[in-house]
Write a structure and sequence with these properties.
Order of helices and strands: HHHEEEEHHHEHHHEHHEEEHEE
Largest sheet: 6 strands, mixed
Shape: elongated
Radius of gyration: 26 Å
CATH topology of the largest domain: Metal Transport, Frataxin, Chain A
Oligomer: single chain
CATH architecture of the largest domain: 2-Layer Sandwich
Number of strands: 11
Length: about 425
Amino acid sequence: MNLHDVLKEIMTNYIKESTENPFKGNSLAKNIRSNFINCFNENHSISENKDFFIKGSAGQSQWAKIPWLGIFNKKIAKGPKQGFYLVYLFSEDMEKVYLSLNQGYTYFQTEYKKYALRNIQMVSAYFQKELLKNKKSKLLEDINLRKNHSNHTLGKGYEKGNIFAIEYQVSSLPDNEELVTDLSEMISIYKKLNDIIEDGIKDDSVVNEIVENVLESRNTSVGRQEQYPDKYLTKNIDNLVDSAEKEIQKNGVSLKKVDIEKLKASTTKKAKKDVSLKPKRKRDYIAEAARNSKIGSLGEKMVLEDEKSRLKKNKNKVVHVSETDDSKGYDIESVDNNDNPIYIEVKATTGPWDTPFYISQNEIDVSKMKGKQYVLKRLYNIKKSKADFYEIRGPLEDSEKIDLEVVNYIAKLK
């Protein structure tokens, strides 16, 4: 059977089979799982690509409301539950089928709970803009799979997770040649998506990093413009901070120190580009400052708890000075292992290690005055109660590890 015949077979018979016959041992369900996927072998861009694998599903132990046939690139998809993939999604009423560039909704349900639908839609919106130049006129950003807008959770996830799709009506299904041509064009867009993601990742945790970049760090770090409503971003940060504080109270913090020179060396070898958001509207600096402040406060709490844990019997020597006085040029007073005083300034981000950060003139001056007793701790990749960090000790202006760039001026009337 060719692609046209497979789609027609499912749309014509699925409702009858799923309502009148048991799932177990059903021939249509079996064909969707295994036999029908052979129709993709005629497309050489799939069959000759070793990174692609194909799966189909009519449900697990019972009939699914929305069956599917999917094409997955193992570099950016772990299957239908996590990652980015191409999929034929059949509507509940079997009146239409969409060839959709979509995302694994289960990941969002697990990771973001009540924010899952909103967050997956934000990721869709990001890639719609990134892939805009690849968009054909027939590609849709919105799809409708649910019959009478039913409350089907997974159906909602598919709809919000759609990046681009082509819609086919059962009453006017194109011939096989047109379907195969459309599929080839969508595979080209899928490959472009893979290129964007591969240029942006820093390690092997592909899906986690790209989602976090879009939802959090790329929207809140220094020097990057925003293109999503500030209320969405603020809620994301609020959710992150709330869950992190609960986790810290329950299990403490886990900070992993990283050698900054090794970080630089590994990045030079990979020579990868950032996934950046393009400016689409004016920034709300007040909302952005509030979000950065919340992340900063969380970072301070993490370092504070880490210092208390390190010193144990001398934890009373750890003082969170910025809580009462933020003019000192550092956040925390502590002592080193030899009981010498140290002055810790904390800079925190949910983003990667090379995200830029602000340093005030006061902090520069104080670091010069305190000398080797001044420690800047840069926390990054903050996820709940865990973070990586590197240290810069001594006068910041003299440090060979960072470049200081003037970004603000004070204006006075002449």
